[in-house]
Every structure is written in structure tokens, then in C-alpha cells.
Fold:
Amino acid sequence: MLTESMHTHTYRCNHADGTEVEYIENAVRAGMQVLGFSDHAPYVFEGDYYSGFRMKREQVQDYFDTLGALRDEYAGRIDIHIGFEAEYYPKHFGEFEKLIRPYPAEYLIMGQHFIKNEYDGAPSTRETQDEDTLKLFVDQCSEGLATGLFACVAHPDVIHFTGNPDAYRREMRRLCENAKKQGVPLEINLLGIRTHRFYPNEEFWRIAGETGNDVVVGCDAHAAADVCDDTSYAIALELADRYALRLHDASFILKGGHTLL
Ligand SMILES: [Zn+2]
Ligand SMILES: [Zn+2]
Structure:
């Protein structure tokens, strides 16, 4: 049974439903002990580009006020943590860090949903056979990891590469090695399992097993019912077993020294 998840969204990202209380109540009912919120963080872009799948900067204070109050209210029943999920966008990460620093986020999860800086690159989930795109994805994740600010890589296998398998193995090994070097765990993403996506990618997790990466499971909940997804968790456990992954409870990501506070 899943007792911890650090990957939870709220309605503020525009593609998640329900109230925070509904998520927390479901988690408590399911016997979970730890629930970390990691909604899509705001990002500052130049010009008039609008990124529609993340909270606005004007919503950040309310995010912390609401969840901070619930953390206190539910103390003793469940441990609530408050963080963010964000991409590493090389051109804008400096401004991004300045934006989130004043807030009491405990941790930052890397979710590299786009190549380059979002407005000038393709979604990572767009199928490609282009090795340069694959390499860029790994370069970008690695550069992000090197900042020391990311505590976990969510769905590290979110790049939908269907080209040369040797190139895939080479680049994913590089990603796994860089994450290991930084002491950052990789996340088996239950949203991918739940919605039958192309990830988790078997070959990726085989490499992670060989590399000896630390691994956690994340629900990636965008609805209250997703916070205790035991059906997908059972499949994740089989995957972890198959490749002898070093699986930890999700709150392990707070122990790696990559906390923001
Ligand atoms: Zn999302
Ligand atoms: Zn997510």
C-alpha cells in the first residue's frame, strides 16, 4: 500500500480538479502518512508568451497560505509538505529562482515537460526520432541537476524518443549517472501507468537499475482520487522488482540536501 507521495497538484495549474481538502481527506482515508504538494510553479517569461499549465505568480501566496493552514490542521493525522514542480529552462531559471525564493517551498521537483524554454521548443512528450532532441533533453536535465536545487526528477523517461535504441541507452545512461552524481532520486510516475502512457519506459528503468539510482514513486495527482493510486502503485512495485531498483519512500527526496529552505 502506498503511504507517501510528494507529487500532488492543485486546481491552480488549470489542469487539475478538486480542493486541497479533498486530496488530503482521500489520503488520510487511504492510510497515507505523507502527502507533498508540488504544483506547477509559475515561470517568468519575457514578452507576452503565456504558459497555461502552471499557477500564476499572483496565486503563489494563496498556495502557501492554504496549504500551510491545512498542514497545521491535519498535523498528527498526515504530514503535509509544500513544494513545486518545475522545468529547467536555461534562459529563465535565474529569474525563476528569484521568484520562488521568498516563499517557504521545501522542495523542487524537476518535471522537464518541454525542450529548450517552452515557447521555443517542443513538448518532451512529442514523439521524435531526432537524436539531437534526445541529447538536448538530457543536457538540459543535467544542467538543471547541476544547480543543486532539484530534489527529484519526476518522470525522467518523459522524453518520447523512438529512434535508435543505442542512442537512447547512451543518453539515458548519462542522465542516470548525472542524477546519481548529484544524489537526486528518480521518480516512477504513476500518472504514466494510470493513463497508459509511453512511460514508464522499461528500457529506462533497466538502465536506472544498472546505474544504481535511488528511486521513489510519485502519484502525480491531478484529481483527489489519484492521491492513493494503489492499482498503479502495484505495477510500479513490479517494475522496481524487475530491475532491482533502490526504492525509497517518497519523503526520501527531502533527505538529499536539495531542500529549498
Ligand atoms: Zn500537471
Ligand atoms: Zn506533476
Remarks:
- The chain has one domain: 4-255.
- Strands lie at 4-5, 34-40, 79-86, 108-110, 152-153, 186-189, 214-218, 246-247.
- Residues 165-181 form the longest helix (17 residues).
- The radius of gyration is 17 Å.
